[in-house]
Design goal:
β11 (about 265-270), α13 and β12 (about 285-290) form a beta-alpha-beta unit. The longest helix is centred in the C-terminal third of the chain and has 16 residues, at about 310-325. It is built from 15 helices and 13 strands. It starts with a helix and ends with a helix. It is elongated, with a radius of gyration of 22 Å. It has helices spanning about 5-15, 25-30, 40-45, 60-70, 80-90, 120-130, 135-145, 160-165, 170-175, 200-210, 225-235, 250-260, 275-280, 295-300, 310-325; strands at about 20, 35-40, 45-55, 100-105, 105-110, 115-120, 150-160, 185-195, 215-220, 240-245, 265-270, 285-290, 300-305. By secondary structure, the protein is of the alpha/beta class. The structure holds adenosine-5'-diphosphate and magnesium ion. Magnesium ion binds near residues 38, 40, 41 and 272. Magnesium ion (MG) binds near residues 38, 40, 41 and 272.
Length: about 325
């Protein structure tokens, strides 16, 4: 027979939309000191919209959007989908692009009309060793300041024949800043994308604090300025809470390890493929909403809805089942 405690817990959790995969995870949730949230899709809606486009000196904004949409046309990333959709609504189909290559956690590149272009965030610019021209600084600062993600369109030069015909050989060129034809990469323009904070996220965080969670943390591949703006919006407290920004997908679990090394018990909340190792490493892994299969597999607890307030529900369930046990 199933012990009474477990059957009660199971009935309560099912009603609350909490799927318990690992009963020990529920038990540990009661003692968690830090809750680490993935930003995109967990604390924010994960549905981006284009909020602004600016061209560098002599480059038209429409041209920037047109080329960026072409380069992004083969990418599944939510930022890419937003650019393509926005361009489609305003101008119809994007130009034809070929020889796509993704730079994981940084951006993508492709050939349009015989020329090579890349689209990506600050990490891409660092990798290429280029900076946005000064005339774009004002817009970029204003966009980042209000929490928008900023992507840049970079001209890499003409696509050489060997690059077009041999994708893998081209990665040698692409890992540094020089273009196939030897010219220097140049930022042609920038695009701002906004992703709304989930209205329930602020409440979810306040609830966890009220339940005695010491530290709230957020992790993202996004730029530091964007992450800090979102954190401020969510009521993060400086010096106590924490923001891990510009983290490459493969390094997300290192943030969990970092918190654990400081003696904290960590619950990680996420939905994406790249959250899976972090969910597995955490003391409690919580997959949220219509998360990816990998995320669900790696988590001890799965929330049926995408509402981050469910995390506080898991903690309450943990306390309630403990009381019933003693
Ligand atoms: P998150 O951790 O927020 O889910 P990702 O690791 O998916 O973010 O992406 C991190 C950053 O890499 C993005 O903020 C963006 O700057 C850049 N990036 C990733 N994919 C693309 C893409 N298809 N086009 C442009 N930029 C991209
Ligand atoms: Mg994500």
């Amino acid at each position: 027979a199933i012990p009474l405690v477990i059957s009660i817990t199971t009935a309560v959790s099912a009603k609350a939309g909490i799927l318990v995969k690992d009963r020990l995870a529920i038990e540990r949730m009661r003692t968690v000191d830090a809750v680490l949230f993935d930003k995109t899709g967990t604390l924010t809606k994960g549905e981006h919209t284009v909020a602004g486009v600016s061209g560098a000196e002599g480059v038209d904004g429409d041209e920037v959007l047109h080329l960026a949409a072409a380069v992004e046309s083969d990418s599944e990333h939510p930022l890419a989908r937003a650019i393509v959709a926005h361009h489609g609504r305003a101008h119809g189909e994007a130009a034809r692009a070929s020889d796509f290559r993704s730079r994981t956690g940084k951006g993508v590149e492709a050939t349009v009309d015989g020329k090579r272009y890349a689209v990506g965030g600050p990490a891409l610019l660092r990798e290429l060793g280029v900076e946005a021209p000064p005339e774009l600084d004002g817009d970029i600062d204003a966009w980042s300041g209000r929490g928008a993600t900023v992507l840049h369109l970079v001209a890499l030069g003409s696509a050489s024949n060997d690059r077009a015909s041999n994708g893998s050989a081209s990665s040698d060129h692409a890992s540094n800043g020089s273009a196939p034809d030897g010219s220097e990469p140049r930022v042609l323009g920038s695009i701002a994308l906004e992703d709304e904070v989930r209205p329930e996220a602020r409440q979810a965080i306040a609830d966890l604090r009220a339940q005695g969670v010491q530290k709230i943390a957020m992790i993202t591949g996004d730029a530091r300025a964007v992450a800090e703006a979102v954190a401020a919006d969510l009521g993060f407290v400086e010096g106590r809470d924490e923001v891990f920004a510009e983290v490459l997908p493969a390094d997300k679990d290192q943030a969990v390890a970092d918190l654990q090394r400081r003696g904290l018990r960590v619950a990680m909340v996420g939905d994406g493929v790249n959250d899976a190792p972090a969910l597995a490493r955490a003391d409690v892994g919580i997959a949220i909403g219509a998360g990816t299969d990998v995320a669900i597999e790696s988590a001890g607890v799965v929330l049926a809805s995408s509402d981050p307030r469910g995390v506080g529900g898991v903690r309450r369930l943990s306390k309630a089942s403990y009381r019933k046990m003693i």
